[in-house]
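Throughout our pipeline, every protein is held as a single compact record rather than as scattered files. Nothing more is needed to write down the fold, since each code stands for a local backbone conformation. The record that follows is passed on verbatim for readers who wish to inspect the format.
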Amino acid sequence: MSNALLYNPTSMEAGLEAVFKTRTVTDAQQAAFARFAKLRMPNRRLEGWKWSDFNGALRDFSPINDAPAADTVASSEFASLNPLEFRIVDGRIELPVEEIPEGMRYGVIEPVATILELESHAIASLNVAMTRKALGIEVVEGAVIERPILIRHINTGAGFSFAQSMMRISPNAKAQLIETYEGNCAGFYSHLFHMVVRDGAEFNRTVVQETGPDNTLHALCAAKVNETAHFEQTSFSTGSRLARHETIAHFWSPSSSATINSAALLCGERHNDFTTHVVHKERDCETRQLHKGVARDRGRNVFQGKFEVERIAQKTDAKMTANALLLSEGAQANHKPELEIYADDVECAHGSTVGSLDEDALFYLRQRGLDEKSARAMLIEAFFGDVMSGVKNDVVRDCIHQKIKTWMETS
């Protein structure tokens, strides 16, 4: 039984506590729920959450106990790539039904007890308290995995579900991951992804989120990048009632690098938040970050990016850019690029723009025979071009481009 009691809880918090009390949990999970009970669900009074108020979105949410898994799951749109496919359906892990490929190890493991850097993060603490099992994947030293690894997060119920994944890319290994968020349910889903990219390794991660407009999602990726390793991530989201994708990356060794790109395409009242925090803890590391967002109707695009450079991290090279297009008066873009620098020999910069489509460019294209809709579509597709360059797989890149085109055809 839990001794952690929430004072004056919302419907969501009361439901979570009721389920937690029925479970047999570890001491670490007890401690994690106690941290959550103290922190509570994030709200707009907190600086990092003022544009993404989870407490407000979930205040009247009455969670049913974990939703039953779907009997059947449709094939992935990336099936033609013959990926090694893992499924997390309403928090339940399904492993591939095939022999484990050479160079890999994987299985269902115990969830993390805690991640020190995330102990002050309310939803991360809640995830640690509520997750039963985790998906563990390791790429062994020196292995080059040609097949994409596919993790599909599929949510079918109106309740809440929690999941964790842990991934280790061993020294000098190479792998690519495609991660999708799917489902039209109205539930709340939390995923905590803890990964380590070891010395000399290369890891490419592509995230594609297309959930229903009533879904509430929080996905947090905590990455540790070691010496001469490279972590490359490209995320694409069409938002939901409230979707927040957080990336927290730490450079623990010299001469490591990361590229973190993101794109949001929002309509209706969909809300998407890309929040990142990159900590340079060693010298000679490089980060490139680019965000592009397009919103129409009452869509809301949020970007928060922070580079933290510790005193020892001399010769850091870090650049961040966030650009947004608003296609209607009701659309919103909230950007907060941030630098916190303690070293004195660095090259760090950030920039942010918010605007509408260039009327001169539209006029130029119209003068060359394009109708207004086609001209607007061409400009929006070009706007996303440099973000998509981080998607190394041609099939995945073409699939995302098709999603952009489909969205523009309805605008």
